[in-house]
Amino acid sequence: MYIQLSINTCCLFFGSETMDVHAFQFSGNQYLLLLLLLIIPFMPHPATPAVPVDNSTDLSSLLAFKASTSDASGLIAANWTTDASFCTWIGVGCSPHRPRVVSLNLSSFSLQGPIFPHLSNLSFLSSLDLSNNSLSGTIPDTLGRLPRLAVLRLGWNLLSGPTPRSIFNMSSLVSIVLSSNNLSSSLPTPVMLPRIEWISVADNLLTGDIPADLARCWTLQRINLNINKLTGSVPSSLGNLSELVHLFLGENQFTGAIPASIGNFTKLQHLFLGINDLEGEIPKELENLVDLQYLYLHINGIAGSIPISLGNASKMIALSVSGNNLTGPVPATLGKSMSFLQFLGMADNALSGGLDFIASLTNCRNLNTIDVLNNQFEGVLPDACGNLSMNLNSFHVSQNHIKGSIPAGLGNLSSLISLALSNNDLRGTIPTTLWRLTKLQEMYLGVNKLTGSISSDIGLMTRLSRISLGENEFSGQIPDSVGNISGLQVFDAPVNKLSSIIPLSLWSLPGLITLNLYQNRLEGLISPQMAKLKAIDYIDLWSNRLSGDISSALGELQSITYLDLSNNSFHGQIPQQLGRLFSIKYLNLLHNFLSGVIPKSFSNLSYVNNLDLSFNMLEGEIPEGKLFFNVSITSLVGNRALCGAPQLQFPPCPANVTTSNSNAKLRLLKYVLPSVASALVILACFSLFIKNIMMKAKASSKEESQCLNYHRWISYFELARATDNFNEANLLGRGSIGKVYKGSLDDGLVVAVKVLNLEVEGASRSFDAECRTLGQVRHRNLVKIISTCSNLEFKALVLEFMPNLSLDKWLHSENQCLLTLVQRINIMLDVSLGLEYLHHQHHHVIVHCDLKPSNILLDENMVAHISDFGIAKLMLIDSNSIVTATNIGTIGYMAPEYGSTGGITTKGDVYSFGILLLELVTGKKPVDPMFSGELNLRQWVCNAYPAAVLEIVDCNIRRIDFTNMQQHSDGVNILHRCLSSIIEVALHCSKDLPNERLMMRDVVPRLQEIKNGLIWKELS
Predict the structure, then answer these.
(1) What percent of the chain has pLDDT over 90?
(2) Helix-then-strand count for the chain, H and E
(3) Where would I find the Protein kinase domain in this sequence (predicted)?
């Protein structure tokens, strides 16, 4: 060091960095000075004492970090003790040369609280990873003082505030990852990061422009600024970053054109500029990006044509330009060199010309998605479609001007899951080969000019969930084999020439949500078997030739919101049971031959906003109530003898009708009442006599006692046989007061037998309460009681068996099963309908008091049923009544007021339902170890809502639904809106103050709208 210093000084003295002895003539004084500079380093000097290594600062910093941070996992609390060297602590890495901390990796440790600012005292720290926790507060500015820090990872937390300016001025930093937080403000300037290779601040709330200084970070390889609120243009100076491999600027608010300098990124593999406001054309300079694999330009305002040179990107895997203003034909050779191409998205543009380019795509043997819907393509579907990749999952050509017939070769695409050819000008019949696509889940052929019949081979497509055949010229009958498609959710075939009757098998599809058959020639009756459509939401049968009575079974469709039976030939009376369609919003029965009176039960239909009973033969008084106060006169005109409803200008009902009815009632009471009263007295005496005999029989013979039940008698011995003498192998679960066994009765009926442990205090009271509650409720979303068996030593409930067990097992078992978002929404809706019935529709208000996933049971069709009414309280006045009780509810789901006042209201169930919604969305139990102190499940979700919703959802939703929705141009946004809406309902339900919570009758329509918003997002 000293030698180098002296030589440098000498060089400076002579005015040159390189000294050539032949180029200078030295004077005597110069020789003396030079000699002195050379001798100084070797002169004796005082010895510098060795400084001992002091690691006490590191120890105190780590202990202070431990004290300031909540450790929900318990790993740090258990491991970070002074009994051992901190170099052995979990997550702590030390230098091999000295006991100093060089790395701190606590990723995914469920940490909570702020980041301790004195971490900056770890002066040897080179890597700090605190990602994927629940840390909050701001990022300490003091972290910028760490002189050796190369890696800083704080992503996937709850951090907020601005990004510290000091961090973007660290000469040692190689990697900065701050993604998925709530950071705001703009990116700091100036940026002085001479060694930086990776910057990721995606999924935050950043605003402002991209700092110009970023272009001077020559070593940058990865930039990720996705999902923020950044504005301005994409700087052309970024073209100086020749080492760049990944550039992610998507989902911001960038404007202007894509700079031509982007062609300088010769090493670029990923370019994501989608979901912005970019304009201009696709730069031809993209042809220079020979290593480009992923190009996302979708949902912008980019115009012009697709450059021919883009086809030279031989390493391209995904190309997405959907949702722009692109015009002109697609280059015929587009896929010729793209042998690795997997995804091609060009939907929602104004592209024209033919589909000749499809022939070039036959070279792409890994291609799984072709999406060119909603353009102006013409011509025919080429036969080359049959030679596309055998891995093709999605082929979407809807909403174009395609003519000709459907190529039979499409049947070769055996992996096809989604086929969308609707809204074109296709003619001819459906090729028989298409019915053999057994993996197909979605088939959209509507709004064409297709003819022929629907083949019975449709029953081979057992995985089909949606089929759209509407607005064609199909004729013949709906094949009975459609009943083989057990998972069918949408059957859409309106405006055709379908005739004959609706097959009974169609009414037996348990998952059917939408049935749309209007404007056909269907005839015959509506079968009472339609009551099996437990999930149905939408039925439209208007303008057919259907006749007979309207089946009272319609009243069993508790989920339906839309029902149109107009323009048919139905006759007879309107069933009173239609008044039980508590979710209905649209009900149209106009232009039939219905007679009799309007059912008074219609006054219960509180959500109807469109009712039409006009042009029938109805008579009598128009019922009172909110519904008929709001309808218009056009909804009731054309009937022969309606009266009442002065606000609708109908004539008043004749007074003599009321008088004659009153006289008839008086005569009836005068002669009939004494006889009825005498019979009741005799019956009561006889009942008391029989009851007394039965009580004595039970006391004298316990083992031979029989069960008091609702439908059948079941003895103790039959239950013992059914459960193999209550064998543990048949055990379904344990509760606080007993066990539940699976059993098979003598007639083969499979049941669940809930046996109470009578030694537990309160078990008998719980048995009585559950018998009393279940005995008086009837609803498709409540567990049905089959029988009871009770004597002095044994009490059991015999309940409907649910083969898919409890929701808790689906969410949290070791062998966790996968629930799709649609299934979760259906479960939420089922539970809400059950609670709405208990709170608002039963003649007495019933509060469940212990709603949680283990009390939600799922039948064979995944329909949810509320169970365990052991502590339910019967409320005899109204939904605002308060009943007090002790030992109710389960921690985490129990409303806050239960612990303070002990008061029970329906709002307590609403709170539990809100927590249940949050658990379904996040997959987190409210008693998860990560929740401690003031942080609970609700607060954790509040912190992430609405900005970081996608980061807190159950990983299974992200794995299943996000993957499935990627084929939609707006898929992720659809899911985000859906999840945000669910969370909004959950947060309203789970507010601390009972009066601020929703009521269940308000929750049901909101969830129904959320469900419809997801189900109806089709590609047709």
Answers:
(1) 52
(2) 18, 52
(3) 726-1007
Rounded Cα distance, 588 and 387, in Å: 48
User: By three-state DSSP, how is residue 838 classified?
Assistant: helix
Residue 261: CB partners within 8 Å, gap ≥ 6?
A: 236, 237, 238, 239, 240, 285
- Residues 2-23 have pLDDT tens digits of 333 333 333 333 333 333 333 3
Residues 774, 827: one domain? no
**Which of 607, 624, 654 is where one domain is finished?**
654
User: Any bridge partners for residue 587, and if so which?
Assistant: 563, 611
DSSP-derived 3-state class of residue 487: coil
CATH code of the domain in which 597 resides: 3.80.10.10
Q: Which of 206, 232, 260 is the last residue of a domain?
A: 206
In this structure, the answer to whether residues 740 and 841 fall within a common structural domain is no
* 298: Cα separation from own chain's centroid: 23
Residue 876 pLDDT grade (very low, low, confident, very high; cuts 50, 70, 90): very low
Does any domain span residue 974? yes
Question: Rounded to whole angstroms, how far apart are CA atoms 244 and 289?
Answer: 11
- The pTM of the whole model exceeds 0.85: no
Same domain, 965 and 1009: yes
Q: What is the CATH number of the domain that holds 869?
A: 1.10.510.10
How many structural domains comprise the chain? 5
* Residues, the chain: 1020
E strands along 423-508, which residues?
427-428, 442-444, 449-450, 466-468, 475-476, 490-492, 497-498
**313 in any annotated domain:** no
Range of the structural domain that residue 535 is part of: 525-654
Decide the pairing of beta strands 845-847 and 873-875.
antiparallel
In this predicted structure, which of 292-296, 395-399, 510-514, 964-968 has the lowest mean pLDDT?
964-968
Is residue 943 situated within a structural domain?
yes
Return the HEC string of 692-715: HHHHHHHHHCCCCCCCCCCCCCCC
- Contact between residue 401 and residue 378 where contact means Cβ atoms under 8 Å apart: yes
Model confidence band, residue 903 (pLDDT cutoffs 50, 70, 90) = low
CA distance 965 to 616: 46
Q: Are 211 and 231 in contact (CB under 8 A)?
A: no
Closest CA to 249 of 285, 290, 202, 294: 202
- Whether residue 190 has a cis bond before it, omega within 30° of 0: yes
Reported as a single tens digit per residue, the pLDDT across 473-492 is: 999 999 999 999 988 999 99
Render pLDDT for 626-635 as a digit per residue (tens, 0 to 9).
788 777 777 8
Question: Two tokens at 443?
Answer: 């088939």
> Is there a single domain that holds both residue 162 and residue 35?
no
Q: Which of 71, 540, 830, 850 is catalytic?
A: 850
Q: In what order do the strands lie in the sheet with 593-596?
A: 523-524, 545-549, 569-573, 593-596, 617-621, 641-643
Range of lowest pLDDT (277-291, 726-740, 888-902): 888-902
Paired strand residues for 427: 449
Residue 850 is a catalytic residue: yes
Domain match, 764 and 814 both? no
What is the rounded distance in angstroms from the CA atom of residue 276 to the CA atom of residue 282? 14
The contacts of residue 976 (CB under 8 Å, 6+ apart) are: 949, 950
The CATH number for 749's domain is 3.30.200.20
* pLDDT band for position 191 (cuts 50, 70, 90): very high
CA distances from 523 to 470, 490, 497, 548, 588 (A): 18, 21, 12, 10, 18
Same domain flag for 578 and 634? yes
Helices of type H across 874-952: 896-900, 906-922, 937-944, 949-952
Is 634 in a helix, a strand, or coil?
Answer: helix
681 domain-assigned: no
**745 and 646 together in one domain:** no
Tell me how far apart the alpha carbons of residues 852 and 809 are, in angstroms, rounded to a whole number. Answer: 12
pLDDT in tens, 59-92: 999 999 999 998 877 889 889 998 999 999 999 9
| Whole-angstrom Cα Rg for the chain | 37
Same domain, 844 and 757: no
